[in-house]
Structures are given as structure tokens and as C-alpha cells.
Amino acid sequence: GQNIDQPTEMTATEGAIVQINCTYQTSGFNGLFWYQQHAGEAPTFLSYNVLDGLEEKGRFSSFLSRSKGYSYLLLKELQMKDSASYLCAVIDTGFQKLVFGTGTRLLVSP
Amino acid sequence: DVKVTQSSRYLVKRTGEKVFLECVQDMDHENMFWYRQDPGLGLRLIYFSYDVKMKEKGDIPEGYSVSREKKERFSLILESASTNQTSMYLCASSSGTGGMNEQFFGPGTRLTVL
Fold it and tell me: What pLDDT shows up at residue B101?
């Protein structure tokens, strides 16, 4: 079966660091994506991991451990505009078919 | 910039009506996808297509059909709309068959079936 778990909601303060975890159990694995989605808008790409380790991109970093079926998205120096939902998605098979988690809603307060 | 457009942002239909949702992408992408997004359930794949006139069922195809007559256009059809199809519908496209080929999403169509 396919199962991707993320926390439903998290809160953090402006300027802080937050880590959003994602665990997955899928029949195959060909990469993991993180997307950001502001309310009422389309998801937009944040990061992609296919090998173990940390990928850094500005204030955002994403980590993957394939042996543990685990990823996290790290957001540093939080800004109010980072308030959004963060979607974890796994490419389950060889084709470009993504399996999404239910998303984590992040609320950043002043 | 990659652009994926959807025909309507908001749509209200009645039970039993036939509904067409249109999606157009301008980046010559091979792959196109239709998802629905519901609170607490996340994005779920309805259908996808990896080439013109080709289609594959996703995880929840019941009650839906699709059409891809041209590479840039992928249509989702609700043959007889029902209230449980009230949802946000998102179209996406991507290139290639492997590697880091992110999906680009359209703005979504919020469909209400009365």
C-alpha cells in the first residue's frame, strides 16, 4: 500500500526555525518532492530529493533518509509569508505519478 | 515561465449535469494530470496522460473520464455530476519520464455541485 504521513498543523514564530516531517511507506521510490501551497492557490515546487542527505536552497532545506522512509523540510528565518500548507509527495513508480501526503498547515505568528 | 491554465476558477453545476474542466499548458510537456483536493485527504490523482490520446487511471477515476486530443490540452469530464464531486480540481503537467521533473500546477477550479 501507499502511506504518507505529515503532521496536520504546526505553529511557529517569525524569525524562528521549523522542521516539518514526512514519513512514507510506498511500494516503490523514485524521489520525494516538497511543495508549498498558499490558501486558494496552486502548489508550487520547493525541493526534490532522490538520494540520502540534505539539499539546501536558501532559507529552505530538505532532508531524505531512504532506509528510514523519512524526510523533513526545514524552514529558517521564518517570515509571515511562509504561512502556507506544505505538501510531501513521493514518486511511487517509474512514471511521473506522485502520491501526496495530506499536507501540513504552517501558521507563522509575529 | 511554465504556465498551466484552467478554464474556470469557480464553477457551480447541478446534479446530473455533464461538466467539462479544461486544462492547457504552454511548455510542450508530455505528461498531464488531474487531481482533486479535499480537506483532510490531500491531493488525489484522478487520471493522467503521458501522450496525446493516451490516458491512465489514477487512484480515484470512478465518475470521471478524460480526453487528450492535443498535446497541450487535457480535459476532465464528469459525465453526470454528483454532490460528492464538489471539490477543488487541480491540473498539472510535467516533462519526461524520470528524474527531477517537477509537476507544474494550474490555479485550480473550485467546483460546487448542487
Answer: 79
Identify the residue whose cell numbers are 486530443: B69
**Residues A63, A49 contacting (CB under 8 angstroms):** yes
pLDDT of residue A93: 72
Q: Are strands A104-109 and A98-100 parallel, antiparallel or unpaired?
A: unpaired
Kindly state whether A33 is in contact with chain B, defined as any CB-CB distance less than 8 angstroms: yes
Q: What pLDDT sits at residue A55?
A: 93
User: Quick check: A52 contacting B, CB < 8 Å?
Assistant: no
**Which residues of chain B lie closer than 8 angstroms to A31, CB-CB?**
99-100
Cβ B94–A31 below 8 Å, yes or no?
no
* Spatial distance between the Cα atoms of A98 and B45, rounded to a whole number of angstroms: 8
| Residue scoring higher pLDDT (A79 or A91) | A79
**pLDDT at position A53:** 96
Average confidence (pLDDT) over B35-56? 93
Q: Mean pLDDT for chain A?
A: 93
Helix, strand, coil shares, percent, chain B, to 5: 5, 55, 45
Q: Does residue A91 contact residue A31 with C-beta atoms inside 8 Å?
A: yes
